Amino acid sequence: MKTAVLKTLPLFLAVGWVSVYGAGSKSPSMQETLSFIMDTLNSYGTSSLTGDATERRSYTLESLGGCRVTLTDHIRSYSKDGSTFSDSITEQSFDLSSIDPNTIGKTGVERGFNGGEDYPIVFGTRNSSRSIETRSNGNVGREWRTNEEATGEFVVAADSVATSLVKALRHAVILCGGRASLF
């Protein structure tokens, strides 16, 4: 009896693996992963309301070819009457291979503009190199400022979305050859 069970166990495990993951299953490609991130960011920015204003935050992720990407954070704040009183843009450009996959994660819940919940997603470069180019205008019409940073961040309004984006970003970094910091 033990022999029969041991002989059929590998077959059972193989059939179970195929039924869960599908025959010939593979992980998502770089294009599929970046498309997922872009589509998710386009669908799940943040929108906050207070007694005096509304803040709308939207993101785009642009692939610049290969593993180079630009993540754009656009924040528009409106007064009660609907006129724009603040309109700022921040761009973070970096090569996914320069990111340490172990640094990608959620930092927890933060208070949003209206006291609601925001879920920041953070990432950092391998060995803390300053290879994330951050450009910000503070407010449309102002001069752009450029900095080289070792960390980046973006915020979404739902915990489950943040969890999915962390997994997808980590997958994209690994596909591009991102490696852990030495120490």
Written overview of the protein:
By secondary structure, this protein is α+β, with helices and mostly antiparallel strands. The protein has one domain. The chain has helices at 2-21, 30-43, 159-175, and strands spanning 46-49, 53-63, 68-79, 84-95, 105-106, 110-111, 117-124, 132-136, 145-149, 151-156. The strands form two sheets. Strands 1-2-3-4-8-9 form a six-stranded antiparallel β-sheet. Strands 5, 6, 7 and 10 form a four-stranded antiparallel β-sheet that branches. Strand 3 (68-79) and strand 4 form a beta hairpin. The longest helix is centred in the first third of the chain and has 20 residues, at 2-21.
Key words describing this protein structure:
six-stranded antiparallel beta sheet, 28% helix, 10 strands, alpha+beta, four-stranded antiparallel beta sheet, 183 residues
